[in-house]
Amino acid sequence: MVDNTNIDFYAIDFEIANSNPTSPCSIGIVGFYNNKIVYEKSYLINPEEPFEEFTIKIHHITKDMVKNSPNFKDLWPKISFVFDNTILFAHNAKFDFLVLKKTLQKYSIPLPNIKYGCSLKISRILWPKEVVGNHKLSSIALYLNEELNHHDALSDARVCGKIIVKAMKIYDVCTTMELLKAMNLSFSSYNYISQAKKHPYLNNKKIAMSGKSFKMKRKDIILLLAQYGCFYEKNINSLCDYFVFFPNGKEEKLIIAKEMKKQGHSIQILDENSFWELVGDSRYDE
């Protein structure tokens, strides 16, 4: 484990097995301190999901290559320090941090307290399209004369971090915070989960639902659940702790939930009234 006090920021990159963001099959992590690389590590990950041909053609990682690798839940204790109140970057961060978020939710792991930025956005400001052609990582690496084995997670993360270092030198700043401020950009974060109230029945639980509540819109329910440390899942799966069947819900989803319960899954099926009783009528306090 690395002492994060000796890390200014990390750059990361995920490769996925299929089009689902819950299917990471590789992660590359590179730590920078005083504009130099001080930590590098990459892992193959068993996504516990099928591989698709189009992704294999991109990164050349196959099911056989990861069959003896840890799943993300088992890997997390080894890499969680990277996401412990740290600053991170990725190239097209929207994608990589969606993968992180959805995979953590898949395994009911609380979202970490991090700030993250995007080297793609920074590249678009620094180098006009007329100069670099486009802002893909491969194009920027070529322009900066940086070696890149594209879609190797560690190599991608390394170049992403070097983009940040280059940008800091161009803007003559010492920290990533100063860099984003100078570029009129801002960090995104995951810290809302880390500040969640610990609800006695919902904290670290996973919930799926169907239908519409009479009391609250779906998006507001999801936000409320997030405040209590509960993870919303769009589809019912074996990791769900609760399934809420609101009025006008899809009967086929209720049938799936009941069948899962018959098969021994510990999923609880709730109607509108029992859901709000569980939540505490949306006014639960510790």
What does the model show?
By secondary structure, the chain is of the alpha/beta class. It folds into two domains: 4-191, Ribonuclease H-like superfamily/Ribonuclease H (Nucleotidyltransferase, domain 5); 197-279, BRCT domain (Rossmann fold). It contains 13 helices and ten strands. The chain has a six-stranded mixed beta sheet. It is globular and about 60 Å long. Mean pLDDT is 91; it is low at 282-286.
| Arithmetic mean of pLDDT | 91
CATH class of the largest domain: Alpha Beta
Could you tell me the radius of gyration in angstroms? 21 Å
Total helical segments:
13
Query: What's the structural domain tally?
Result: 2
- CATH architecture of the largest domain, please? 2-Layer Sandwich
Please describe the biggest sheet, giving its number of strands, its sense, and whether it closes into a barrel: 6 strands, mixed
Can you give the helix content as a percent range? 25-40%
Q: Structural class from helices and strands?
A: alpha/beta
User: Would you list the SSEs in sequence order as H and E?
Assistant: EEEHHHEHEHHHHHEHEHEEHEH
Question: Largest sheet, order of strands side by side?
Answer: 3-2-1-4-5-6
Tell the overall outline: globular
Stated plainly, the CATH topology of the largest domain is called Nucleotidyltransferase, domain 5
Number of strands: 10
Low-confidence stretches: 282-286
CATH superfamily of the largest domain: Ribonuclease H-like superfamily/Ribonuclease H
What proportion strand?
A: 15-25%
The span between the termini is: 34 Å
